[in-house]
Write a structure and sequence with these properties.
The complex is a heterodimer of chains A (535) and B (365). Chain A is an alpha+beta fold and 535 residues long. Chain A has three domains: 126 residues, no CATH class; 115 residues, no CATH class; 168 residues, no CATH class. Helix content of chain A is 48%, strand content 11%. Chain A starts with a helix and ends with a helix. Chain B is 75% helix and 0% strand. In chain B, helix 2 crosses helix 3, helix 5 packs antiparallel against helix 17 and helix 6 packs across helix 15. Chain B is globular, with a radius of gyration of 20 Å. The relative contact order of chain B is 0.22. The chains are: A alpha+beta (535), B mainly alpha (365). At the A-B interface, helix 7, helix 17 and strand 12 of A face helix 6, helix 7 and helix 15 of B.
């Protein structure tokens, strides 16, 4: 650990000392400062982009004086309509009309400013004074306008690339509530969030991560609710990421999480804007990554993975029931196979006599001990799940049919497994899919296997030891410095209202105290709060 | 980092005390109480609890006078280096041998109840390794785990008491309602070993948030086991009668075995309670074990206790396999009970000493 850090530090120091933005990497060393000559500037762009077929260099002459200009952009990332109608048409045609009307021609000295102020009819423009800045913009889909006689390059926003529209969530469907999900375009995603919160205090800050990929990463929080220390911590951890490429939120997750030695997710991933925004309202920070239809929410407690947005949209009794169901299901998914193994192998007397006899009768012809039987079946169902996950829809049905054979009557008749085992595996599988968050569900499915081994070795005592070990692990986990097992350990009483049960809305007057928000009150007109103040 | 409460809250303090006290003995307590006090079983349990409460309060006051030190450190401050270190060493031996004893009693009971064919060593080592894993997470992990398990333990015992109320009869309880006072008092030392574990106060006060290690919290912390133990004795005697209870090794488990209510999914509820009892036993073992390693590291004035956890684990194991049979375990139990009582008395003497000499340490000192 320390050795890596030592290797890392000198590099960082160097960058800080030079106080320069990181330079472009190329085989040819190119000076990043720009000159007044368009030919030199173009040559610098071409040094990088000449071999790329999608780079477009459009040279043209401006006005009656014929001032050389050039557009540099990447084909496919730009909207050609904007380039044709709002840039080229203005610069090549309208500007001569303007010259004629005013009776003066544009000179090379003021051409740049004139273009900026009068000729480009696009909302978002910027200026770049160095090659690396303008290059980055060009690579992100902007158009660089180089004008003879200017050291600056005008960056015109003409972004437009093929993108998937907003569609319904794939992994977090809901019966009630909005049906939109994040897409791969960061700007669309931030717009989805803005649409849900018009408070100008909601801050969307963007930084670029990845040495080469230069991915836009945005983090969202609400000033005046979110604890500034949390925001600081998020910034710190994001800025520590120093890798070549960032492709997905999952990569960010692995760089910013607290413990990499845990199967449990320490940040919440969601593709739902409503889940994201309600967590931001709770005083958490959401991180969005360009090219990823998922957002990260930090900090995360275990209890968050059992929450679905519908809990809040439905009546509280129904919400509470569903919550309770999910917690029970998680226990079932993790512990049922191991308890079965332990009871069958060590403590058959635990069961009511008729049931014990029935199971024993079923198992008479099974050649394997309970552990092997359970392990085979659990592995089979994991195989089914994994093969089904990536199968094209057209042949997806096959897996359903084959699965019915493997975990079903045929397996029993082949003498591999007993009917009770099939039932049990099915229950476990159903229970493990009840958990609304994919990453938490897979963690729970994973811990089944060590628990099964413990049960096979030590019986129910092993299961309890496994339970203890699991809980030790969970209480020692932290997410951005916040306790993972809150609100139970440590007990935060006011948060337990929205934990295993979801109490009526008017009782949930506080934001989760466990994330330490600056402003804890969610509602102003609250009878309970008034009472508290009266005290 | 953020929100890093290095210091524990009031509820964690309560949970630490309660879960350390409540442990292995819960399943055999009615038997022990009747064996030593006969008719005075109930009164004696209650009085032992009250005595423990008094000592716990004394320890609490003493600990609060030295808000930044554990007993191992202020023993040296108060009594000088040689005597202080010697008494500290005795304290470590006490914590170590209690860990070993609890581990042994637990493993014996578990072998008898659940895992007849499993070697004792396997049970002990697996338990000890789990405790080591917890101790490596430090006092925060221990407190949080206690906090997590305590409600489960309390609820399960209350459930046990509630479910077995159909077996309960006041008639059987009659002999213990008018006990001889002398007999009850005489058997307090035997029973006080059931309440051992409140010495944890002497070690944890520096870790508790300011003003949270106060007397009400201490009273709650020790009140929970006192009430639950007393209820267990009442239920066992009320369900079986005085003499039959004395014959049972684990009356609480027998109580659970007798439960039957319509629609039960399991034949034997006792296994269910044995499992929950493992949680209670684990928190006791782990907490005592942590106290042992913590006091040792404080005695040698080092900072990192983690190597000591590894170092002490084999010692605990060897101490635990030392007693040959049940009578020897009982003898060790008696000695440790007396040792625990003497430590409590030592705490009282120390408190008087501090109050007379005025050698206390100020909050910001």
């Amino acid at each position: 650990m320390k050795i890596i850090k030592k290797n890392k530090n000198p590099k960082k120091l160097e960058v800080l000392e030079e106080n320069n933005p990181p330079q472009l990497k190329s085989e040819e060393k190119v000076d990043i400062t720009l000159s007044k000559s368009i030919d030199e500037n173009l040559a610098k762009f071409k040094a990088f982009l000449e071999d790329s077929s999608d780079a477009v260099f459009r040279e043209f002459k401006l006005g009656s004086q014929g001032i050389p200009c050039a557009l540099v952009f990447i084909d496919g990332l730009v909207n050609s309509e904007v380039i044709n109608e709002n840039i080229l048409k203005n610069l090549m045609y309208e500007i001569t009309m303007l010259e004629r009307a005013r009776g003066q021609s544009i000179q090379a000295e003021n051409a740049y400013d004139f273009i900026k102020e009068h000729a480009v009819s696009v909302g978002e423009i910027a200026e770049a004074e160095t090659l690396d800045k303008s290059m980055l913009m060009v690579m992100s889909g902007e158009v660089a306008l180089i004008v003879e006689g200017s050291k600056k390059i005008l960056i015109v926003n003409a972004r437009g690339w093929p993108a998937r529209g907003v569609s319904t969530p794939d992994t977090e469907g809901s019966v009630r509530g909005p049906k939109d999900a994040f897409t791969e375009t960061l700007r669309v995603n931030t717009a989805l969030l803005r649409r849900k919160c018009k408070d100008p205090n909601m801050v969307i800050k963007t930084i670029k991560l990845g040495r080469r990929s230069k991915t836009d990463v945005a983090y969202v929080y609400i000033k005046g609710i979110t604890n500034p220390k949390l925001v600081e911590e998020v910034e710190k951890r994001l800025n520590q990421i120093d890798v070549d490429e960032i492709m997905e939120t999952g990569q960010i997750e692995q760089w910013i999480q607290d413990s990499y030695l845990s199967p449990f997710p320490q940040v919440q991933l969601t593709e739902r804007p409503d889940t994201t925004i309600s967590n931001v309202f709770d005083g958490r920070v959401a991180i969005l990554v360009d090219n990823s239809p998922f957002s990260i929410i930090v900090p995360a407690g275990l209890y968050q993975f059992f929450q679905a947005p519908e809990d809040y949209y439905d009546r509280w009794i129904i919400g509470s029931f569903l919550r309770f169901l999910r917690w029970s299901a998680s226990l079932l998914a993790a512990f049922v196979p191991s308890i079965y193994i332990a009871v069958i192998t060590y403590h058959p007397s635990f069961l009511p006599t008729p049931l014990a006899l029935a199971i024993a009768a079923n198992r008479v012809n099974i050649p394997f001990p309970a552990f092997v039987e359970a392990f085979l079946m659990e592995i089979t169902i994991e195989l089914l799940r994994e093969s089904g996950a990536r199968l094209p829809k057209a042949i997806g049905q096959t897996i359903g049919i084959v699965g019915g054979i493997v975990i079903g009557d045929a397996a029993v008749r082949a003498g591999i497994t007993s009917p009770s085992m099939v039932l049990l595996v099915a229950i476990t599988a159903i229970a493990s899919f009840v958990i609304p968050t994919y990453s938490a569900g897979i963690a729970l499915r994973l811990i089944r296997f060590p628990l099964m081994i413990l049960a096979a070795v030590l019986g129910l005592y092993g299961v309890v030891l496994g339970f203890i070990l699991l809980n030790i692990h969970l209480v020692s986990l932290k997410s951005f410095g916040f306790d993972y097992m809150t609100p139970q350990a440590p007990l935060v009483l006011q948060d337990t209202k929205d934990w295993i049960l979801r109490l009526p809305r008017h009782l949930l007057w506080n934001r989760p105290a466990s994330v330490n928000p600056v402003d804890i009150d969610r509602m102003d007109q609250d009878p309970y709060k008034e009472n508290k103040n009266a005290k | 980092m953020l929100n890093k409460h290095d210091r524990l809250g009031g509820i964690q303090y309560i949970a630490l005390i309660s879960s350390t006290i409540m442990g292995v003995i819960a399943i055999s307590l009615p038997n022990i109480a009747i064996e030593s006090a006969h008719e005075g079983a109930l009164l004696s349990t209650l009085m032992a609890g009250i005595l423990a409460t008094i000592f716990a309060v004394i320890m609490n006051i003493l600990g609060n006078l030295f808000p930044k030190k554990t007993i191992v450190e202020y023993l040296v401050t108060l009594l000088g280096k040689s005597l202080g270190k010697l008494l500290g060493l005795i304290l470590i031996i006490y914590f170590l041998s209690t860990t070993a004893l609890i581990l042994r009693v637990f493993s014996d009971a578990l072998k008898g109840l659940l895992l007849l064919n499993t070697p004792l060593e396997v049970i002990m080592i697996s338990m000890l390794l789990t405790a080591v894993y917890l101790c490596l997470n430090g006092i925060n992990g221990i407190a949080k785990l206690s906090e997590l398990f305590l409600p489960i333990i309390i609820l399960s015992i209350l459930l046990l008491i509630g479910l077995s109320s159909s077996n309960f009869s006041f008639v059987r309880l009659r002999p213990v309602l008018l006990p001889s006072l002398w007999q009850s008092i005489k058997s307090i030392p035997n029973l006080s070993s059931a309440f051992l574990g409140y010495e944890i106060i002497l070690m944890v006060t520096p870790f508790i948030a300011r003003k949270k290690a106060n007397i009400p919290n201490t009273l709650i912390g020790i009140g929970i086991p006192t009430v639950i133990y007393t209820l267990l004795v009442i239920m066992a005697i009320g369900a079986f009668g005085l003499k039959p209870t004395q014959q049972m090794n684990y009356p609480t488990i027998t109580l659970a075995r007798k439960i039957n209510f319509p629609g039960a999914f399991a034949e034997r509820f006792d296994i269910f309670f044995v499992l929950l009892w493992i949680l209670a036993a684990f928190t006791s073992v782990a907490n005592f074990f942590y106290m042992a390693s913590l006091s040792l590291v404080r005695l040698v004035t080092l900072r990192n206790y983690q190597p000591f956890v590894y170092f002490l684990a084999p010692i605990v194991y060897m101490l635990a396999i030392l007693p040959q049979d049940l009578p020897e375990i009982k003898m060790v139990n008696t000695y440790i009970g007396y040792l625990g009582l003497s430590i409590s008395i030592l705490a009282a003497v120390l408190l008087i000493l501090v109050l007379i000499s005025g050698k206390k340490e100020h909050e910001n000192g």
